[in-house]
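Blinded run. Sample ID left blank on purpose so nobody reads anything into the name before looking at the predicted structure. Input follows.
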Amino acid sequence: MHVVGKMRVLLVPPLLLLLLCGARSQAASRPNFVLLMADDFGIGDPGCYGNKTLRTPNIDRLAEGGVKLTQHLAAAPLCTPSRAAFMTGRYPIRSGMASRSRVGVFIFSASSGGLPASEITFAKLLKNQGYSTALIGKWHLGTNCHNKTDFCHHPLSHGFDYFYGLTVTNLRDCKPGEGSVFATGIQVLVFIPLQVLAITVLTLGMLNCLGLLHVPRLVFLCLLFLAALILCLLLCFLHYFRPLNCFLMRNRDITQQPISYENLTQRLTVDAVQFIQRSTERPFLLVLSYLHVHTALFASRDFAGRSQHGAYGDAAEEMDWSVGQVLDVLEELGLSNNTLVYFSSDQGAHVEEVTAKGEVHGGSNGIYKGGKANNWEGGIRVPGLLRWPGVIPAGLESDQPTSNMDVFPTVVKLAGAQLPADRIIDGRDLMPLLRGQTQQSDHEFLFHYCNFYLNAVRWHPRNSTAIWKAFFFTPKFTPEGANGCFPTHVCFCHGHYVTHHHPPLLYDISRDPRERSPLSPASEPRFQQILDTMQQAAARHAETLPEVPNQLSLGNLLWKPWLQLCCSSSGLSCQCDLEKLGRRAQL
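Blinded prediction complete.
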């Protein structure tokens, strides 16, 4: 028995040693992930995609050292649905993150909609695999559900250990002097009712003076009170919007309300670098989600006025500097060869961003038509760069259709996790394409949604160079001959704002990437056959879409006072700057 016991004593340590070594080897083989997501950055903006005047040397470093995707597509042309698809690998309509109204994104921090708890992000799966996870920058997928402390939609509820940034987005209204994105809404909700009230009061007054109608004085007083109330509500909105909606959070605490743009990119970048520095002992996931180059545009003193493209160029070049800081710290810590770096944008450049002074505050979508908020190529074709030295060949270029949804299965599989078996994952693993093991994307069909509505279908037949794209409807660009919907600031997805096509408009993107010449039965003999195949694919896809709660319904979009977050130490003023206090403490 003692011999057996001794044998057991002798055998157990080697077995444990093998297990421990295996576990360490597995941990060491799992890469880190740095996912860099720009906001409204056009495919025509980086130097590696052909821009000759905007300086993006660090973004270009990624292209030189890795793979450049030239047909990388956002799953939606607006921030909220596109980011939901990126995080989950699923079309946003599957999670209810696709609006049926004109408003397709969250515009208030105190809204009740957001990414449902039932959705699984890549951060959640990697956290379960022992990864350290962080989101720094923009979230835009909701905050609370029922009260200001449940944080049901918050990044920390979706797999991130650490969050530092904005729960909503960077709006013009957050920066004094930049105007308001709510101009059209204010006109409809305020100025039109005021005009109606004014006409009513004048009409009643005239009738009363002419003796044709006796109007009690109380009626006039009530109408004047209503007009005063509407004006008061407008002034309150304009005064309180910034401190209420524009704030910076660290985890679940507000650190700056309202947000200050002073060295904001530097603060976010320093935080990202510090996260990498303290995460060297185990694999990590960093999502650095830039506020650049969404308006309001901003840049620090080192970049302001330095570019050839005004405020937009300054912001873009400052973002490129930040990318360089992240790449540099990976090299300094010897992590480059074990880190997959991805750079993209949530959708194309916002071509309608023109100030009252005529300054263009939107970027370039290169040769492509349209931009943010529509599914012409300019709205969804975005930069797609991936670098992993020693694993992904340097300098490779692929024109295969890929999607920002593909990041989900790619990252999850590389981390050693299993893809969820209880739901459809629309993304496809990119590694065979990135390694050159296959020459064709796994996406035969891709479906392009304009909010809730299926707008177009893309078909890349197996063993064919053709890439067909069929539009069921297209936005009405205004003014006539423009490349966007300038009066409404973005293009809308239904009603009189779109033109429906019967039969659908058909393009061969491989030959006509600018989408200038729709095909016809005369120019394409297989015209009807191609459309039939694509419509059948769309019908099969529709069968996989169960009804889910609409997270972007009017009720979920509206501002709710009981969900409003406010600095805990500031009473009712909702103003604080713990960022400044923290910097003073460091000094």
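Unblinding after everyone has recorded impressions. The radius of gyration is 26 Å.
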